[in-house]
């Protein structure tokens, strides 16, 4: 088999919006369809068959069991385009790109669309376990006494819906509370975190002003820019925010240096390199390699969101690279302290030092927001474009942490 | 005689119009010669995303920046009701039957565009069971006509001079239904709240019975919208769609939907268990400059 290369040729996302805001009435499927519409329009894919569309969502209704395929059927793509839902918490979008790229490399398809969507506004509400069991018993009951027995098991308190919570099932800690443990353990200061948040807002604002997102974002529902972005925020403004995670004097994490619940969708167009050239598509960057890893966080021995520090050395080793060989680092800002602890751990473990001037230079999740499964698509499309602008041979490293103590990292190269 | 133009500051709230319409129940049409030469207009309408979202969720459209043609009809509806509720409008609103609808979306219309919405009545015609007339709606952006639609209503018992023209009949596609829709009993109330059409025949059994229906019937425009939404991603950017409302759907209901695509046009029907059509329609790509 001849060698095949998977390349990113472009991307499209909706502007990201704080949960409960301008996208409050849009479902996850609406958002994914909107991102798909924009990509189809940008690359003239209307009526065409794409090898596969792969995407996912972290907050997902049971009715959305075929979310991606449903979005395809609502789009202008040929109905013969197959689709697949994939999910690895916040790693979803990047894992989708890896899945698509691997299939392309193996010759199973020539072109794919990969990414994800999340709507914290459209999060499913779950009924209590007692109500759910009673309703299932009721649906099985055939006789009136059986039905009445099933109904009688329901208590008034069972009727209250159970709101969704981003809590680790095994530790009972929310992601912020888990990260507060990491923040304290690695001695990350409030000032460092606020500085990183400030840089994220400034970088993202500058990228918007420079028109960087003109061919990466399509407006949706009267929103043209990421709405969480505060390009004019200051160190002083960030310093005034009260802490929301961690306890007492030692608490350092605020709404300013933690990501907000966000609605949005992001997709990437991936193709085999020769195929892309044949279609006249720009070849932005190769998807070189990727690695996943997981951390032993349940016992408290390791950190929930530092699994990428296990994946990165494996990936570098396999590709014969060091941290000095990269032009850009895209480290997902779940929390400012996640990125800072990741950098510290990489240094402490002897992996190397990340040049901060190459880190998240177009802003990241603190400023853009973080619709969980959409973040990978946002990062890959932006990084591929940055590498294309930098020129052939330039390299970027993506690192995304995910719930369940997982991490997915990847190398892109122009 | 010139046309009256009534400019309203905003689209009227449908419930107020309904009260006016109920007062019109005492109208006894008899011989009718003309309709008021009057246009109702709203100069600058901005679509509320939350209303569009609720409409899309109820009718099966994805919530896009580009708005469905049937939603633009919904925007004209309060003006239609306003026009028909006027004291000098000869027919009582509550007894009118929506027979056919014909609308054209000339180009994709985005949710952030500022719309001029207008409605006028015309084309009074004799009919075997009374009289028909058109409610013509138009949506402009600046000077550009972006949507127009004609709703034909039948006023039973009215008399208009002349011979009734032959009725327009759309042919149902000869195809087995490929979809089954389950319409819940409260669908009429739900669609009323997203469309603003609170006609009592759609709301509950009691109010429906007052008008001779054993159960509430779903709005024809819901069925119309759902049938267009069913085309999913195939729906063209700009299109003309014509429908004929053949037989009301009593709620709750289970109905079938079939569609064929031939010669660049779609023909569809919503049918009952016996295959008899409730609604028959045709949709084709609209090209610039065509009516």
UniProtKB/TrEMBL annotation, chain A:
Domain of life: Bacteria
Keyword Ribonucleoprotein attached: no
Keyword Transferase: yes
Keyword field: Acyltransferase, Transferase
Stored CDD domains: thiolase (cd00751)
Position of the signal peptide: none
Cellular-component GO terms for this entry: cytosol
One term of GO molecular function: acyltransferase activity, transferring groups other than amino-acyl groups
The family this protein is said to belong to: Belongs to the thiolase-like superfamily. Thiolase family.
PANTHER family noted in UniProt: ACETYL-COA ACYLTRANSFERASE FADA2 (3-KETOACYL-COA THIOLASE) (BETA-KETOTHIOLASE)-RELATED (PTHR42689:SF1)
Protein name (Swiss-Prot/TrEMBL): Acetyl-CoA acetyltransferase
Biological source species: Tessaracoccus lapidicaptus
UniProtKB/TrEMBL annotation, chain B:
Domain of life from the UniProt record: Bacteria
InterPro entries, alphabetized: HotDog_dom_sf, MaoC-like_dom
Leader peptide range in chain numbering: none
Gene3D superfamilies: Hotdog Thioesterase
SUPFAM superfamilies linked to this entry: Thioesterase/thiol ester dehydrase-isomerase
Protein family according to the UniProt entry: Belongs to the enoyl-CoA hydratase/isomerase family.
Descriptive protein name: Uncharacterized protein
